[in-house]
Amino acid sequence: MNRTVKYSQYLFVAIVALCLVIWLTVSFKKTEVSVDVDQKINVTPEQIESIKAIGEWEFLSIADEEMVDTMRKGIFSDDHLVRIYYGTVRLGINMHQVEPGWINTSGDSIEVTLPKIGLLDRDFIDEARTQSFHESGRWKAADREAMYRKAYKKMLKRCVTPENIKSAKHNGEEQFRQIMKSMGYEHIAIKWKE
User: Fold this and answer.
1) What are phi and psi of 3, to 5 degrees?
2) I need a surface site. Which of 23, 94, 102, 193 has the fewest CB within 10 A?
3) Span 105-162, pLDDT tens digits
């Protein structure tokens, strides 16, 4: 009799376990998990403002040195002054110059219109590194200022060239593409304000 009770207990536990497995299977089949994907990507006003807040954005930096000389004829001797000027010309954009509607989005596409490439810092000559290479005679502050202006113009002419502007644009486009890709855009068009 004891054996019969034990078998019936085992049978009862097995039936309860089987019912539990069937119930769990049916319950999980009815439960569905779904994920809806929104294909539309939106640039938020906060993102636009954070990009604009960058302010000046450097895309190309050109280190330059210019040698400038001047000579003054004298009665007994000539005065001669040769100075070497060092500077770093930085090309880029000022994000505060973007116009309204500079970003347009449509699905996974974005079009960005950037301000034109320009000189970021007009005070690019490093006066502390300026050296007199050769100096004979007496020179006034006005003479040195005239040499500074001459060096300034030479640096601008040598550094702000169509080739360097093109290179700065290329660097800027690459940086903007990376930012827009990180925001989820697949098709990115970048235009420049001329």
Assistant:
1) -65, -40
2) 23
3) 888 888 999 999 999 999 999 888 887 777 777 778 888 889 899 999 999 999 999 9
